[in-house]
Amino acid sequence: MTAVQSYQDTLQTLSEASVHQHFDAFLDIDWDNPAYAIDPHDERWILPEADVLGRHAWYRGLPRDEQIRIGLYRQAQICKVGLQFEQILIAGLMNFSFNLPNGSPEFRYSTHEATEECHHTQMFQEFVNRSGQDVGGGSRLFRFLAPFLPLAAKWLPFGFFFGVLAGEEPIDHVQKTVLRAGDDMHPLLQRIMQIHVAEEARHIGFAHQYLEHQAPKLGRVDRAILSVAVPLIMRWLCDEILKPTAKARKDMGIPRSVVKDIYWDLPESRKMLRDLFGDVRMLAEDTGMMNPVSRRVWALMRIDGRSSRFRSEPASAAA
Ligand SMILES: [Fe+2]
Ligand SMILES: [Fe+2]
């Protein structure tokens, strides 16, 4: 089987999986189930040890009602940033697929992905609404650039799909860590995360496939520029998604020094930052994005380290 055939087969498999296993934001989540109600005094909103803020000494030393208040705000804020990122992704997927030739396997899969992301934006927004938290989502810069970022999907699809991974990999990594930790989670949030992790696996798979397929077609100059751009995009979008914005920091009342500790001064934070990108480093190796210059940029961005040997290799083994 040629590489092209196997690429097309993989996209076909991903597309069929989207037909047979997909979730509707309002049919598949029992929003009005009393067990799913959001009580702002529920102790289950206390952030778990698996959360970087949740395990910080400052947070652990707070009174319980403050831990609960901050925990609920933080979950809503993560959902809001996530859904804004997904809105950019949906717009990008439309730009990407607009001029694809008839019969293109990318057309079908990218529209499946957009459909799923629409449901994610609905489920995340519904969670935000029900949480009663006035969260703003991304930083000013991120929200200012939001209308322009999807254009990259048309003009620079290779860079765009690396950007997609910059958003999807950290969120996926964080959600999987929280789910694996198995703490006493609020069942509504748990349901949302389970749905999300299940569908993200396909999206991430598609981005990896697309990039591996396109990489050999890149010219030398494009490859050189992209190799340096990739670690910059990764780090920028990772910070946009994970780091509290000025508004979020103020609303939650987190001291600046604590934010600095967590993002990313503490040794365990640095390790986590590196761990987030084990799979992306593997992909960067496979797509010829690693060279002596770009390796230095990965190191400067503090996201260097050993690459995963296979996708979703547990971080303790990868880094
Ligand atoms: Fe999503
Ligand atoms: Fe996704």
3D architecture notes:
The longest helix has 35 residues, at 64-98. The two termini are 34 Å apart. It is globular, with a radius of gyration of 20 Å. Helices cover 69% and strands 0% of the residues. The protein has helices at residues 3-20, 57-60, 64-98, 105-131, 140-145, 151-155, 157-181, 187-214, 220-242, 246-252, 256-265, 267-276, 278-286, 292-300, 315-318. Helix 3 runs antiparallel to helix 7 and helix 4 runs antiparallel to helix 8 (187-214). The model has no long low-confidence stretch (mean pLDDT 93). One fe (ii) ion binds at residues 117, 168, 200, 203.
Helix % is 55-70%
Cα-to-Cα separation, first versus last residue = 34 Å
Please provide the ordered H/E string of secondary-structure elements: HHHHHHHHHHHHHHH
Q: Specify the overall morphology.
A: globular
Mean pLDDT: 93
**Helical region count?**
15
Small-molecule components bound: fe (ii) ion
* Class of secondary structure makeup: mainly alpha
Low-confidence parts: none
Work out the radius of gyration.
20 Å
Please tally the β strands and state the result: 0
Largest sheet: none
Oligomer: single chain
Strand content: under 5%
